[in-house]
Design brief:
The complex is a heterotetramer of chains A (661), B (103), C (487) and D (505). Chain A has 661 residues and is mainly α. Chain A is built from 26 helices and eight strands. In chain A, the strands form four sheets. Chain A has a two-stranded antiparallel sheet. Chain A has a two-stranded antiparallel ribbon with strand order 3-4. Chain A has a two-stranded antiparallel ribbon with strand order 5-6. In chain A, a hairpin with a 2-residue loop joins strand 7 (361-362) and strand 8. Chain D has one domain (2-503). Chain D has helices spanning 6-23, 29-59, 88-107, 115-134, 138-149, 151-159, 164-192, 204-210, 215-232, 241-248, 251-276, 278-304, 309-328, 333-364, 375-378, 380-393, 400-413, 418-428, 430-446, 463-481, 484-493, 495-504; strands at residues 67-75, 80-86. In chain D, strand 1 and strand 2 form a beta hairpin. Classes of the chains: A mainly alpha (661), B mainly alpha (103), C mainly alpha (487), D mainly alpha (505). At the A-D interface, strand 3, helix 5, helix 6 and helix 25 of A face helix 7, helix 10, helix 12, helix 17 and helix 18 of D.
Chain lengths: 661, 103, 487, 505
């Protein structure tokens, strides 16, 4: 495979961004839409081809002795800080990046197509496609990064595209503030990532050049991952606050991932990000960008394994987040927010799965392969069914013009396609076989149980909650009680146009069958194939839990009944807290506005105006003051002048005399 | 009693100080001029004294004194002319009244 | 001895010659309109004399037993001062034709020339007798000139303040000189004093003598605290005389100061007068600036500005070296064109409208753009802003002051530099009045007199070129290569 | 040959520009614009040619420390020369200046009143800047430095807005105060920089070659020179002229001042303070690292609560310029390279900002962000440009700011000392705070609902405004996309300085 195709994968979206961004104003909507969709279609085809070639061609470049290889398709110098710190822009092809290429281009293409219908009447249609192209470019660049710095570059770019897309309806203050929040929170997390990279690259680049690390760039993933042990030895002496520097670095880098992947406590931006157009939520805030954190950990997996403390950290963060988000999702009214919290919870699932994947033999068996593989597998399946759910939600919103389920209910009759595809999505996420979510979740749970029973049990509970809230949502939208509004003329909801339905059907189909992909053959932490086999006890338990949860949801929400209200009233405090997402936003609001903005910034500004500036003004004032004070010297009386004169001469003499003699 | 230099110098300095004192305290411009004259003369006196006692062989101090006296006379002339001018305008020779320009 | 010795005093003779021609012409011509020729004649004659002095071969002459020495440095400073006087003559050409003064313009020129003659003597004197004569010759006629606007009370007040302080300062100077004489070994030649006053025999009397000398000469330079007459006199005197006082008399005295203190008292520099001068310079620059900040009358403003400028000039005397003297002469030259440029504008406006307040300059650029432009340049130059000449002169004088590398001098320069900021502030106030202050212009548009304009052109050319063209400084520096100075 | 050296023409052309303007009628806009556009285009062309030729010569193996070196005696007694020469950094600075002068000309297309005088002072200002960058003689450098400072007074005082008289005076006096310290430092270097028996010299290269200044003096002079230049570089606590000055200055002047003039400070800091006093730089850098570190964070925090657009930008300049000095003080090649990149980047970006603010102010007659909103709807072009400038400022990859900041952070973090590295981490927080204040403005000003009904009738950018902004944006993106050639050029030019520093430890 030549380098042309990888370059095209990155170049086409970038070009489309520039074309639509600069020339979009002059284009018609139709032209812009077609251009965008065609271009993305082309990228998708190329990506499929590349991924296909990578997995199936058997080229020794890609697979060697049954082990899948990492292959830098190209890697050009972009900026050289020092000889040992060179930023390259390149294209790394390995199992996870190939998999991500498929995921991103698929979802992106679906979203492009879907948006054609969904955004049809919005002003700024061309701009929208330009931003989508920018996002696709950035996300692709992120996953194919050959080095951590390239990843950071595109990491920032996806952040900005996310900002632009969330704030697409820029006339709405809520959208503007949501986009701002998303950007700043992720930027805050990126700061830690940057510091992590700084620390890591400092120690790596300062390792002796004639040592085992050679003189390769300190950013390069391959170099870092292949020499994880060496690096750990190199920095073994360096500690900071009783933690190894490497642990610190890896944890800091992970914090960047926490921001993008909306892990507690940096999750607050994601629910608000639902202010953006729904297809955008499907693409960015469900399927692709938010899993960047998971991808980052997977990418750095060998280094994380060398410092198990950081993996423990990841596990704990993930576990807490997963549970928290699941609980909150049970109480939300806005359907997109339910999905958003569900996304957070699912990503946390993947995080835990990576976190439990110790690369240490437990009773002689390497279990690391399982957690890693399962996490990636779930990433894949989750992208499909969560995009499906979001797009379905988009179709609902399109039809009902509201985000609240209270405005919905009984829609199954009006929107059959949406209904069925949504149901498939719910079943997939709930982990019911044979839908894709079951397989991936099962593998993850198995990995967790293998690590420690606690993680397994905890996450099984979360899985149960997932099934419950998804079906709560499902019932509340499609069953419950029909909204009387629908009977009115012109308010009758109907299924979306074909541009929107086709992606729904396609993704539903994928969600049905994706579980049967022998994922372990393709994506494993070390490139060697891993044969997936169902762990029966785990599978059975999780199915049972899921079914129980669905049953509970059916009882409570399938028909209108007072049960939910009773539950709510039984524990009002908890419900209220969960409904308010346990007041994280308020805490942040307090810290940022009251403390940072009002106390720190204002006092600094005050200090600047009054102390620093005041000092300068005071200098002028003092000068003037003395000027006025001494004016009496020039009294106008010649005798006084002479007295000064004479006294001056005498003083001069006396002082000199005293000093000298 | 031996008349050494100090016997001459002390009166000279007293003259000088008296001149300064007079200049600073008197109100009439003519009195100021007289005070100035005292100061100038004390300086002249000094020259003569030093010449007489320290360098009896040369005449520089004496010559200098002659010139200084001439200069003092010129100064007085100009000063008087100006005082007359002021008197025409203010009808007064009080120095305190000449303080329109200040600060 | 012989009369031939007078022949060596060429610059003085030229001045004397012009003086005589003017005097005779003045005396033997009828009053009234017939005297119209006097102004152009004097100006032309003086211009020719200036050119002649510039063209004179600079050879070292020493006559009257060394009392009078015309070395390269003296020649150069005389040439420089001559240009200044020429500009003063040009810019006063309009004023002397005014009704009040026209009848007495002959006297004006004569007195002016006499004072210049006195300054020449000061410059060339190497014996205190000649110096004192020169000083008084330069000082006393000025009192008459200050009082020249005899219908104006301010002029008289200025004159009486001037003359009384001047006489007082002469007395102090003579007193100090008499003490010096006591140490001098019987001779008042600078060189004899130099050899006789060695640093070992410091006594209280000598210190008092030094203090009195500095006070006496500092009076003419208006060094603080001997400066108090300056503002009143500058304000009251006719503007032509103010400008003359502020540059010519200051320049000549500064040069003489340098010569005296280096050539006569060079031995006791580190023991004695270095610190006196140090203190006086700091006081001069600072106090001058502090007073200037508040001034509203431009002439008074220029007085305080010139006080602080005198402090900068004296920085050159802090190092008794060629570079110090060269920089000082250069500074004087630049100061002449800058200050006279400012005064040319002030004179033109005063002659037309009688206004000298800073407020009156509000919005001047709307009516008189060229005068505004010239005034701005002059202010920038005085403040030491490149590319105008003032920057170079300031920079070079600071360079010379730090050339010995001693820490106290660095501190002195630092204080001077900080003071330039204050001075920049008040110079900018003028610029601000002209360009920024809102409101209608208070001075109507007019075309100034030819002489004033010529003066202005010369000054502007000087302000712009003196810095950029290095020959002026080189000329000063080469002239300052006189024996007895360190590099 | 005096005029045979291209560098001289960087001063000659602005002087010709001055002369040309002087010949124009006061209100003959056509002629004035003609002169300005012609000369600024010529300058831009010359700068581009210079950069290209520089790179070509370097590629051809010319390893001289400076190129186009020439020296003409000026003041013989003091050995003052008009010495010119450029290395990679200077040529880039010249290019930056040309770009901004060019853009500034178009940004002040409709200046009023007294257009001729405005451009006269503007040209004088640019003369000073150009002269400063081509000089390698401390005297001429200092002279041009002051030439560049003083026109600010009139430019702000006459054509400014708001409390212009106060601001102009404050700016001028503070900068002159800085240059007073600087001058003393230069004098010290001059008198102590040559070994016994050699003629004293102002030439930077010669002085550095002698390396003769003893350690005690170095420490003293370093403080003087660094503070002197630091004032212009808006170093805390000497930055306070900047907010007021920039807020009151007319558009083009803010552009040139923040874009180029503040760079004079940084440039001088390494070219004189660090290069000539390496020992002191090694020893005393920590003091200034603390100050500049404070600048970075402090400026950013201050910017968060401002409501006047220009104040926001001015405080952001304090923060960004603080980063320049901060990086320079890390004394290693990468960090210093980052500092230069940051100078270029900040120059372009802040010029763009000020241009846009000027254009917005020209339409809405207010700079208070509380009184505006939703400008994207009304003037989409300006809105988009503002967002681009904002992204450049907060360090979006693909824009120059990112390249510069990352080079600074990674370079600075290379410092072997823990204290320095901790400061770097503190400095990195600015990227978040920057994002906060930039997005705050963008959110209030550009996005959101329209605040004032009257604004709905306003028009979008005119052609000259577009030209001005497009030039700057193109440069910003150009550096952002292809930073390596710049970075390499700069790194190479830092070699003598870093060598001097290494020798002095």
């Amino acid at each position: 495979m030549s380098v042309t195709l990888p370059i095209l994968i990155l170049a086409i979206p970038l070009f489309m961004f520039l074309l639509l961004g600069i020339g979009g104003v002059k284009m018609s909507r139709k032209l812009a839409g077609i251009l965008g969709i065609t271009a993305l279609g082309a990228v998708a085809v190329i990506s499929y081809y590349v991924a296909f070639t990578y997995f199936f061609s058997g080229d020794s470049l890609f697979i060697d002795d049954g082990v899948r290889q990492q292959c830098q398709m190209f890697d050009v110098t972009w900026l050289a800080f020092t000889d040992r710190m060179v930023v390259n822009i390149g294209f790394l092809l390995d199992p996870i990046s190939a998999m991500m290429l498929v995921v991103i281009t698929t979802i992106s293409f679906m979203v492009h197509l879907y948006s054609w219908g969904y955004m049809e009447h919005e002003p700024g249609f061309q701009r929208y496609y330009a931003f989508l192209a920018l996002f696709t470019f950035s996300m692709l660049g992120l996953v194919v990064a050959t080095n951590i710095f390239q990843m950071y570059i595109f990491w920032e770019l996806v952040g900005v595209s996310s900002y632009l897309l969330i704030g697409f309806f820029y006339k709405l203050p809520s959208a503007v503030s949501a986009s701002k929040k998303a950007f700043i929170v992720t930027r805050f997390a990126d700061l830690f990532m940057l510091i992590g990279i700084l620390v890591l690259s400092y120690y790596v680049s300062n390792a002796p050049a004639d040592g085992p690390l050679g003189s390769a760039s300190a950013f390069n993933f391959q170099m870092l991952n292949n020499n994880a042990g060496v690096i750990a030895n190199t920095v073994v002496g360096a500690t900071f606050m009783s933690g190894s520097v490497l642990t610190w670095a890896m944890v800091l880098i992970f914090v960047g991932g926490m921001g993008k992947s909306a892990m507690l406590p940096l999750h607050i931006w994601l629910p608000d990000a639902m202010e953006g157009p729904t297809p955008v939520s499907a693409l960015i805030h469900a399927a692709t960008m938010v899993v960047a954190g998971v991808y980052l950990v997977a990418r750095f997996f060998p280094l994380y394994c060398i410092v198990p403390d950081s993996l423990t950290f990841i596990t704990i963060v993930g576990a807490i987040t997963a549970f928290y988000a699941a609980v909150v999702a049970c109480t939300q009214i806005d359907i997109k927010r339910v999905l958003a919290f569900s996304t957070i919870s699912q990503i946390a699932f993947m995080m835990v799965s990576l976190g439990v994947a110790y690369n240490q033999p437990i009773e002689g068996v390497h279990y690391s392969g399982l957690g890693y593989m399962a996490s990636m597998f779930h990433l894949f399946t989750h992208a499909m069914f969560k995009a499906l759910l979001f797009l379905g939600a988009g179709a609902l919103i399109h039809a009902v013009h509201s985000n609240d389920y209270t405005k919905m209910g009984g829609l199954r009759k009006y929107m059959p396609i949406t209904h069925w595809t949504f149901l498939i999505g719910c079943l997939a996420i709930a982990g019911i076989p044979p839908f894709s979510g079951f397989f991936s979740k099962d593998e993850m749970l198995a990995a967790m149980y293998n690590n420690h029973w606690f993680w397994g049990a905890w996450m099984s509970m979360v899985a149960g909650l997932t099934a419950f809230y998804m079906f709560r949502l499902y019932y509340l939208i499609f069953w419950w009680e029909e909204n009387p509004e629908y009977k009115k003329e012109g308010h009758k909801p109907h299924d979306a146009p074909w541009q929107m339905s086709v992606p729904l059907i396609f993704l539903a189909a994928v969600s049905c069958v994706a579980g049967f992909i022998p994922f372990g053959e393709f994506v494993t932490y070390n490139g060697e194939p891993y044969h997936i086999h169902l762990e029966t006890p785990v599978a059975v338990t999780s199915i049972v839990i899921a079914l129980l949860a669905i049953g509970l949801a059916t009882v409570m929400y399938a028909k209108k009944n007072p049960l939910p209200a009773k539950f709510k009233n039984a524990m009002p405090g908890l419900w209220k807290a969960a409904h308010h997402r346990f007041y994280w936003d308020e805490i942040y609001q307090f810290v940022t506005h009251k403390i940072i903005f009002n106390i720190i910034c204002r006092s600094i500004a005050w200090f600047d105006r009054h102390v620093i500036d005041g000092t300068m003004n005071a200098l002028a004032y003092v000068t003037n003051f003395f000027s006025v004070k001494i004016k009496g010297m020039q009294s106008g009386y010649v005798q006084a002048y002479v007295l000064w004169y004479f006294a001056g001469a005498l003083v001069l003499a006396v002082i000199t005399w005293i000093c000298l003699i | 009693m031996d008349l050494n230099m100090l016997w001459y110098l002390v009166p000279s300095v007293i003259m000088f100080v008296a001149g300064v004192y007079g200049f600073v305290t008197r109100k009439n411009m003519i009195a100021l001029l007289i005070s100035l004259e005292l100061m100038l003369n004390s300086a002249d006196l000094n020259f003569v004294i030093f010449n007489r006692f320290l360098y009896p062989g040369s005449m520089e101090g004496m010559v200098f004194t002659l010139f200084a006296i001439a200069i003092a006379a010129a100064e007085t002339a100009i000063a008087i002319a100006i005082i007359v001018n002021i008197y025409r305008k203010l009808h007064s020779t009080e120095i305190d009244e000449v303080d329109k320009m200040k600060y | 001895m012989g009369y031939s010795q007078f022949g060596a005093m060429i610059p003085e003779l030229i001045i004397l010659g012009i003086f005589l021609v003017v005097f005779v012409a003045d005396v033997f011509s009828r009053d009234g309109s017939a005297k119209k020729f006097l102004t152009p004649m004097t100006t032309v004659l003086f211009g020719l004399g200036t050119i002649a002095i510039w063209l004179l071969p600079s050879c070292e002459v020493s006559v009257f037993g060394g009392m009078y020495v015309n070395d390269t440095a003296s020649m150069a400073i005389k040439a420089i001062l001559n240009i200044g006087v020429f500009i003063v003559l040009l810019q006063s050409a309009h004023w002397v034709e005014s009704d009040e003064v026209a009848i007495r313009k002959g006297e004006f020129y004569e007195l002016l020339l006499v004072t210049l003659f006195g300054m020449y003597l000061m410059i060339s004197a190497r014996h205190f007798l000649l110096f004192v004569i020169g000083l008084e010759a330069a000082s006393l006629p000025l009192a008459a000139l200050v009082a020249f606007n005899k219908k104006h009370y301010e002029s008289d007040e200025a004159a009486i303040k001037y003359i009384l302080t001047a006489v007082f300062s002469s007395a102090i100077l003579l007193m100090g000189l008499s003490f010096v004489y006591a140490f001098s070994g019987g001779s008042l030649y600078y060189s004899d004093i130099y050899t006789n006053i060695a640093s070992g025999q410091m006594s209280g009397l000598l210190i008092v003598a030094m203090a009195f000398m500095i006070a006496g000469i500092g009076f003419k330079l208006s060094l603080v605290p001997f400066h108090l007459w300056t503002a009143d006199v500058y304000q009251g005197a006719p503007t032509a005389i103010t400008s003359y006082l502020s540059v010519i008399s200051k320049g000549a005295t500064a040069f003489a100061f340098f010569i005296i203190f280096v050539q006569a008292f060079g031995q006791i520099y580190p023991d004695c007068w270095e610190w006196m001068l140090y203190a006086v310079i700091i006081a001069t620059i600072t106090v001058g600036n502090l007073f200037a900040i508040r001034q509203k009358n431009l002439k008074r403003f220029m007085a305080f500005s010139s006080i602080s400028q005198a402090g900068y000039i004296m920085l050159g005397a802090m190092t008794s070296s060629t570079i110090g003297l060269g920089s000082m002469m250069y500074y004087i030259f630049v100061y002449i064109v800058s200050n006279l440029g400012a005064f040319a504008v002030i004179t033109s406006i005063e002659n037309k409208t009688g206004k000298v307040g800073m407020d009156d300059y509000d919005g001047l650029h709307k009516t008189n753009p060229w005068l505004s432009f010239a005034m701005t340049l002059a202010m920038f130059s005085l403040a030491g802003i490149p590319p105008f000449a003032g920057f170079f002169s300031k920079f070079l004088i600071f360079t010379s002051a730090t050339s010995t590398g001693s820490m106290p001098l660095y501190i002195l320069v630092l204080i001077a530099l900080i003071n330039t900021i204050i001075s920049l502030y008040y110079y900018l106030l003028v610029v601000k009045a002209i360009w920024i202050n809102p409101g209608e212009a208070k001075v109507e548009a007019f075309k100034s007199n030819t002489g004033e304009r010529a003066a202005l052109w010369i000054c502007v050319a000087g302000i712009v070129l003196f810095g950029l063209v290095p020959y002026i400084y080189e000329y000063c520096y080469n002239a300052a290569l006189i024996p007895g100075l360190g590099q | 040959m005096f005029f045979g050296n291209i560098l001289i023409w960087f001063v000659v052309v602005p002087i010709l520009m001055l002369a040309g303007l002087a010949l124009c009628g006061q209100n003959n806009m056509k002629a004035i614009r003609g002169v300005m556009v012609t000369c600024s285009t010529v300058l831009l062309g010359m700068s581009i040619w210079l950069v290209c030729d520089f790179l070509a010569q370097r590629a051809a193996g010319n390893q001289a420390e400076m190129l186009w070196m020439d020296s003409w005696m000026w003041y013989k007694p003091l050995n003052i020369h008009l010495a010119v020469g450029v290395d990679g950094i200077s040529v880039l600075m010249l290019l930056l200046t040309s770009i901004i002068v060019f853009a500034g000309t178009f940004a002040s297309w409709k200046i009023n009143p007294l257009p001729k005088n405005f451009f006269l002072w503007y040209s004088l200002l640019s003369t000073g800047v150009y002269g400063f960058f081509i000089s390698i003689d401390m005297f001429t450098m200092f002279m041009f430095y002051e030439v560049a400072l003083i026109p600010m007074y009139l430019l702000i005082g006459v054509w400014g807005t708001g409390r212009k008289e106060y601001s102009a005076m404050k700016l001028t006096l503070m900068l002159m105060g800085g240059s007073a310290f600087l001058m003393l430092g230069l004098l010290g270097i001059y008198w102590h920089g040559t070994p016994e028996g050699m003629p004293h010299t102002w030439n930077i290269l010669e002085i550095s070659h002698y390396g003769n200044i003893d350690y005690g003096w170095q420490n003293l002079l370093f403080v003087f020179t660094f503070v002197g230049f630091g004032v212009l570089g808006a170093m805390f606590p000497f930055h306070t002229w900047s907010p007021d000055g920039h807020a009151c200055a007319p558009t083009a002047v803010s552009m040139l001042h923040a874009g180029v003039l503040m760079k004079l400070g940084g440039y001088g800091c390494f070219r004189i303070a660090i290069f000539l006093l390496p020992h002191a730089a090694n020893e005393l850098a920590w003091i200034f690292i603390i100050l500049t570190g404070i600048s970075i964070v402090y400026g950013a925090f201050s910017a968060c609560v401002q409501t006047d657009l220009k104040y926001i930008n001015a405080y952001s300049s304090v923060s960004h310029c603080g980063m320049v000095l901060f990086a320079l003080l890390m004394l290693n090649t990468t960090a210093m390279t980052g500092a230069i990149l940051q100078m270029l980047s900040h120059g372009l970006m802040t010029a763009l900002f000020f241009a846009l603010i000027g254009m917005i102010y020209g339409r809405t007659h207010t700079r208070d962000i509380r009184q505006m909103g939703g400008l994207m709807k009304i003037m989409p072009y300006l809105g988009v440009c503002y967002m681009i400038a904002g992204f450049a400022s907060l360090g979006l990859p693909g824009m120059s700011g990112f390249v510069a900041e990352m080079t600074i952070f990674f370079g600075s973090f290379e410092h072997a000392d823990m204290f320095h590295r901790i400061f770097v981490i503190a400095a990195t927080t600015s990227i978040v705070i920057t994002a906060v204040y930039i997005l705050r403005v963008v959110g209030k000003l550009i996005l959101g609902p329209v605040q004032d009904e009257h604004h709905l009738s306003l028009t979008d950018a005119t052609w000259w405004e577009r030209l001005s902004t497009v030039t700057l944006i193109a440069c910003l993106a150009g550096i952002g996309f292809f930073p390596n050639w710049l970075s390499e050029t700069i790194q190479h030019s830092f070699k003598p300085i870093v060598d001097a520093l290494a020798m002095a430890i």
